[in-house]
Write a structure and sequence with these properties.
- This protein has about 375 residues and is of the alpha/beta class.
- It has three domains: about 160 residues, P-loop containing nucleotide triphosphate hydrolases (Rossmann fold), CATH 3.40.50.300; about 90 residues, Helicase, Ruva Protein, domain 3 (Orthogonal Bundle), CATH 1.10.8; about 70 residues, no CATH class.
- It contains 17 helices and seven strands.
- Strands 2-3-6-1-7 form a five-stranded parallel beta sheet.
- α2 packs across α3 and α9 packs across α11.
- The structure holds adenosine-5'-triphosphate (ATP) and magnesium ion.
- The site of adenosine-5'-triphosphate has 16 residues, from α3 and α11.
């Protein structure tokens, strides 16, 4: 059966705005065709909840300007997808979209990544390097995890945002650039300012147009469309023909709390498609976990403990690490499961203060790691796949 002709037998949810055609009440045609459109900016964004609609409205409003956008939201809510949409909907869409994950680059290399360096600027600078600001000239620079920009670099970033000018490391020559900045964070920058970890002037410069992405648990009406979308995607990728989603599987998806948001949903659908037999999508969620989540529907306050971004990140990371026996890297490690680079996950763990609990045997011996070995490094000496 071709994917296009595929019909979901026992559960046929509306698959978002993608299958509708024509304009909506407000004459907005773009969003009506989100899955069909080949060239428009929102083609990969699935869902038609009011909160996602509001986000897409904001994207439309800001895209055509050159203003800086700050995208906030928990891990896996689609910040990078929205950053792409802003670029694709802007007049810069035919120019470069350059991404830099500030958490994934060692702090001492970040400055040269952003601004470039001249040959001999520092030990090891054997050739001239062009920085991301220069590469992104006339296009868009997406600074992911912008909260990880070290304090010493923040004034330089502020300057280039205000003046659109900078110098490569080791050079006195000032370069002018025309770069639109989109930044993303899953941390509360206002709190970081209160703790003097982030400069308020840079925050106000970044926060010209904030877009807050709602967590998936607050837009559950998008879940059927997302599940269907990902089933089709993995059918295509794996050459499978899953065409039936039993109501109990969809119910399990609907009531899970999704601390890892859409990325977690995507990974679970992938697992379910792999496990599927007879074209039926099994429920990949552990049965025992459904009870509390179903209960929490009646008691929405049960979600409150996950409410802060940091808590939900921490919860998801620790849960994933525990599931994989604290293996961080490699195909079976937590980084792969979370869809993150190993270095990004390590940076997040450091930032959130997550380290492997001391094994009982070591705790009995006084809980000491060998000197000079951090808990996460210790893992590489034996029981962890770093
Ligand atoms: N509305 C959506 N429709 C379809 N796919 C989505 C949607 N939102 C997110 N995704 C998918 O979910 C995954 C995670 O999205 P993305 O990487 O943009 O999240 P993020 O907020 O940047 O996460 P992190 O903070 O961990 O970097 C991606 O594969 C993305 O394509
Ligand atoms: Mg991201």
């Amino acid at each position: 059966m071709s994917t296009a002709a595929m019909e979901f037998r026992s559960f046929t949810p509306s698959i978002g705005p993608g299958l509708a055609s024509g304009a909506d009440a407000r004459g907005n045609y773009w969003k009506q065709t989100v899955q069909e459109g080949r060239d428009h900016p929102f083609k990969q964004i699935v869902g038609n909840s009011a909160s996602l609609e509001s986000v897409l409205d904001q994207v439309e409003q800001v895209a055509s300007t050159d203003s800086t956008v700050l995208i906030e939201g928990e891990t896996g809510t689609g910040k990078e997808l929205i950053a792409h949409a802003i670029h694709n909907a802007s007049q810069r869409c035919r120019r470069a979209f350059i991404k830099l994950n500030c958490a994934a680059i060692p702090l001492d290399l970040l400055e040269s990544e952003l601004f470039g360096h001249e040959k001999g600027a520092f030990t090891g600078a054997i050739a001239r390097k062009i920085g991301r600001f220069e590469i992104a000239d006339k296009g868009t620079l997406f600074l992911d995890e912008v909260s990880d920009i070290p304090a010493a670099l923040q004034p330089k970033l502020l300057r280039v945002l205000q003046e659109q000018e900078f110098e490569r490391l080791g050079s006195g020559h000032t370069h002018q650039v025309d770069v639109r900045l989109v930044a993303a964070t899953n941390r509360d920058l206002a709190k970081m300012i209160a703790r003097s970890q982030f400069r308020s002037d840079l925050y106000y410069r970044l926060n010209v147009f904030p877009i807050v992405l709602p967590p998936l648990r607050d837009r559950r009406e998008d879940i059927p469309a997302l599940v269907t979308h990902f089933v089709k995607m993995f059918n295509r990728r794996m050459g499978k023909q899953v065409d039936s989603i039993p109501p109990e599987t969809m119910a399990a998806f609907q009531w899970h709390s999704w601390p890892g948001n859409i990325r977690e949903l995507q990974n679970l659908v992938e697992r379910a498609v792999i496990l599927s037999q007879d074209s039926v999508l099994p429920n990949p969620l552990p049965k025992k976990r459904m009870g509390p989540f179903i209960l929490s529907v009646d008691r929405p306050q049960a979600f409150q403990s996950w409410r802060t971004l940091e808590n939900s990140d921490r919860g998801l990371i620790v849960e994933t690490l525990e599931r994989v026996g604290w293996v961080v890297g490699g195909p079976r490690g937590a980084a792969a499961k979370l869809g993150l680079k190993r270095t990004t996950l390590l940076a997040k763990m450091r930032r959130l203060g997550i380290s492997r609990p001391i094994p009982q045997q070591e705790a009995d011996m006084g809980g000491m790691m060998p000197e000079g070995i951090k808990p996460e490094m210790a893992a590489s000496h034996g029981f962890n796949g770093f």
